[in-house]
Design goal:
The complex is a heterodimer of chains A (118) and B (238). Chain A has 118 residues and is mainly α. Chain A has helices at 2-21, 28-42, 44-59, 61-64, 66-70, 76-111. Chain A folds into 2 domains: 1-64; 68-118, no CATH class. The radius of gyration of chain A is 20 Å and the shape is extended. Chain B folds into 2 domains: 4-75, no CATH class; 83-237, no CATH class. Helix content of chain B is 83%, strand content 0%. Chain B starts with a helix and ends with a helix. The chains are: A mainly alpha (118), B mainly alpha (238).
């Protein structure tokens, strides 16, 4: 478990250093994630080492989100004022994004002759 | 029994109390969510946040004090983002096979999510600084928080907006996709993962195995794409 965690933290550290060092708009952990996919592809042994710990972390992803979510208490005045507008924005944009994504997928799959496999 | 006031004043300043409260609140919330058969509206994060917000209100505890304890949990968001590499790598063969439809759907879904949210919010008079917190709302929480920080938004506000987006996506996805007569589980799952991240992905897994796998891929790819396009789209509304 500890070696796998060390690998994950090393990739985060590397991503963080790259993101800040080069002033990139992409967050450090995202760079770390992309680099780790590449590293897994290069070394299946590394993938086998890290996978169980990664899955353990992701199984509790919802919990990790709670501390930031509680921050809502700091934004109650804003939500009282703009809550309706924000909710409308979230509702409309989520509906449009799901529709746009699914319709585009089906259209391009038809064009490229890539049929569903089930 | 000694006077409880000094004990409280000690505990309320130490990280232990609020770290414990966070884990206990989440355990309660997860139990409730399981009892309702994982109904989208009984989201465990939403329930835990409400419980803790009420507790902070009742005890008069400022958020900064709470966060001193909760930051240990919060810290793990970064490693969890890196850990998303595992499911992405596991699905690499599928990504290669349906690369073109996925890439097109990713672009369409991701740009639509950011641009339409910002357009509606701006039109309804939401102040400009809030838009930076709204832009990454369709990406998975740890990434969204990172993007919001990079854009000058408020991570805590982003967390709430991300959470609500996921719940909305989980609730509307099935009726919406049925209405559009889309029967391809890959397309259905992928679109939900792009638009409504982990909560949408969890919902997709409940509906269909293939939809869930593709939702996970959509979530992972959109985390990368939104980090790239959000600053650019936000510029249209600046």
């Amino acid at each position: 478990m500890i070696p796998a965690l060390a690998v994950i933290l090393l990739f985060q550290l590397g991503g963080e250093a790259l993101s800040r060092g080069l002033g990139l708009p992409v967050p450090g952990p995202v760079i770390g994630m992309v680099a780790l996919v590449a590293a897994f592809a290069a070394s299946p042994r590394l993938a086998a080492l890290v996978r169980p710990v990664a899955q353990g972390l992701l199984a509790h992803l919802s919990l990790l989100f709670v501390p930031a979510g509680v921050g809502v208490v700091a934004h109650l005045p804003l939500l009282r004022e703009a809550g309706g507008a924000l909710l409308a924005a979230l509702l409309l944009s989520t509906i449009l994004a799901i529709a746009a994504g699914a319709l585009t997928f089906v259209a391009v799959a038809r064009l490229t002759g890539d049929a569903a496999d089930d | 029994m000694t006077d409880p006031a000094p004990i409280w004043s000690y505990l309320s300043r130490e990280p232990l109390l609020w770290l414990t409260a966070t884990l206990v609140a989440y355990t309660i919330a997860d139990t409730v969510s399981r009892a309702t058969g994982r109904a989208p509206l009984a989201n465990p994060v939403l329930i835990a946040v409400i419980l803790l917000a009420l507790l902070l209100g009742v005890t008069g505890t400022p958020y900064t004090t709470y966060f001193e304890g909760a930051q240990f949990v919060h810290f793990m968001l970064g490693p969890a983002t890196v850990a998303l590499a595992a499911p992405l790598y596991g699905n690499l063969a599928r990504v290669r096979r349906s690369a073109l439809p996925m890439l097109a759907a990713l672009l369409a879904g991701s740009v639509t999510a950011v641009a339409s949210a910002l357009a509606v919010a701006a039109a309804l008079g939401v102040p400009a600084p809030v838009l930076a917190s709204l832009a990454p709302k369709s990406t998975t929480a740890p990434v969204a928080i990172g993007i919001a920080e990079a854009l000058g938004g408020q991570p805590t506000l982003t967390a709430v907006l991300v959470l609500l987006t996921g719940i909305i996506g989980a609730v509307v996805a099935t009726p919406l996709l049925n209405l559009l007569r889309i029967g391809d589980w890959r397309a259905r799952g992928f679109a939900v993962g792009v638009a409504a991240h982990g909560i949408g992905t969890a919902r997709a897994f409940q509906v269909h195995e293939t939809a869930g796998a593709f939702a996970g891929i959509g979530m992972g790819l959109n985390a990368v794409l939104t980090a790239l396009i959000a600053p650019w789209v936000l510029g249209w509304f600046g």
